[in-house]
Amino acid sequence: MQVTKDKVVVLYHPRYLVKNAAMSDFDYAALQKINPQIPSLEEVIDKFPNTEIIVDLKSLPKEDLIDNIIKLVDKKNAWDRLIFYSTNNEHLDYLKQKKPEAITFENRKITRERLLKMRNEDICCCTNKNSQYAGFELSREMIVEESFALGKSNNKISFKLWNQDAIQCFNNKLKNPVRIFLFGINDKKSYEEARKLGAYAVFTDTPKALIESLR
């Protein structure tokens, strides 16, 4: 979710709209000429009045994006069906400060710490009792840094972070089951694994290819 130059909130994921030009460099009318398929958040809210909508907060500064989202969602009275996510914790912190009733995913840093503790130490920790939503990649490449007296060494390792123990860790500490979203589900094998784990929903970079693989 990003905001245009004239403060229209739109659904767009990449950093740039065209080469070296961000969404905030264009007003909404110009955007529609470049790519009329990019919808505004208002259009989506109106088109799907009975649907939960996951709002992935992207653009910075946070105030510019979130202040305009708050104005729109207040006008539409849609706080009960929008769930907010961001890889940038400052988005969610600012949103909760301005609108405590907003529904948000658990802080990604907390989710990552819990998953790594479970994987490496078999310890369930860090539960955020105020969130009923959590999301992370089924597998994630991470940098492991080792420190020596004369320097450091880095290795990139692909971690498989979720298993039944991790799922149980989320759910045991809360009164109601957590809705767990798994990201990066791009093939049949990972989809079947997410389904076996009991994920509430999955995110894919290639929806058409994933659907075809499941037929």
Topology readout:
Blueprint: E1 2-3, E2 9-10, E3 16-18, E4 21-22, H1 28-34, H2 41-47, E5 53-56, H3 62-76, E6 82-85, H4 89-98, E7 103-104, H5 108-121, E8 133-137, E9 139-148, E10 151-160, H6 164-172, E11 179-183, H7 188-197, E12 201-202, H8 207-213
Parallel strand pairs: 5-6, 6-7, 8-11, 11-12
Antiparallel strand pairs: 1-2, 3-4, 9-10
Helix pairs in contact: 2-3, 3-4
Q: What report would you give on this structure?
A:
The protein has 215 residues and is of the alpha/beta class. The chain has a domain of 109 residues. 37% of the residues lie in helices and 24% in strands. The chain is built from eight helices and twelve strands. The strands form five sheets. A three-stranded parallel sheet has the order 5-6-7, with no helix packed on it. The chain has a three-stranded parallel sheet with strand order 8-11-12. The radius of gyration is 19 Å and the shape is globular. The two termini are 31 Å apart.
Keywords:
8 helices; 24% strand; three-stranded parallel β-sheet; globular; alpha/beta; 215 residues
Give a short synopsis of this structure.
The protein is an alpha/beta fold and 215 residues long. Helix content is 37%, strand content 24%.
How many beta-strand segments? 12
Radius of gyration: 19 Å
Principal-axes shape call:
globular
Residue-averaged pLDDT? 90
Structural class: alpha/beta
Low-confidence sequence ranges? none
| End-to-end Cα distance | 31 Å
Note the run of SSEs as H and E: EEEEHHEHEHEHEEEHEHEH
> What percent strand?
15-25%
The main sheet comes to:
3 strands, parallel
Read across the widest sheet, the strand sequence of neighbours is: 5-6-7
Approximate helicity band: 25-40%
How many helices? The count is 8
